[in-house]
Q: What sequence folds into this?
């Protein structure tokens, strides 16, 4: 664990050291993360708890809890519609998005 020495703040990184991490995880960047954590921690915890409750509700019933569609969007769901075709720029695939970064995946990306 690395605990940067920041004025008035402490951030603990719970990860093995990574070469060059200090280039990205500067004191300013860690101070920013600390400020986000202070500001949004309670809301983040509430949302994670709500997500866990919802996951439990969906998984604890034999067929899961049915999702309820809102009445005010029923006309959209039941209408006959379709989205526009993809633009030509998006159908011309010359770049392969790949991951994780290793030799084989890089070769596959370059071969695309």
A:
């Amino acid at each position: 664990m690395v605990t940067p020495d920041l004025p008035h703040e402490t951030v603990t990184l719970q990860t093995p050291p990574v070469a060059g991490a200090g280039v990205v995880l500067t004191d300013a960047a860690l101070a920013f993360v600390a400020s986000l954590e202070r500001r949004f921690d309670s809301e983040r915890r509430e949302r994670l708890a709500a997500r866990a409750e919802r996951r439990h509700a969906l998984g604890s019933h034999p067929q899961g809890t049915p999702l309820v569609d809102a009445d005010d969007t029923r006309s959209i769901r039941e209408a006959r519609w379709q989205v526009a075709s993809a633009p030509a720029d998006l159908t011309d695939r010359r770049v392969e998005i790949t991951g994780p970064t290793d030799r084989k995946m890089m070769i596959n990306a370059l071969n695309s």
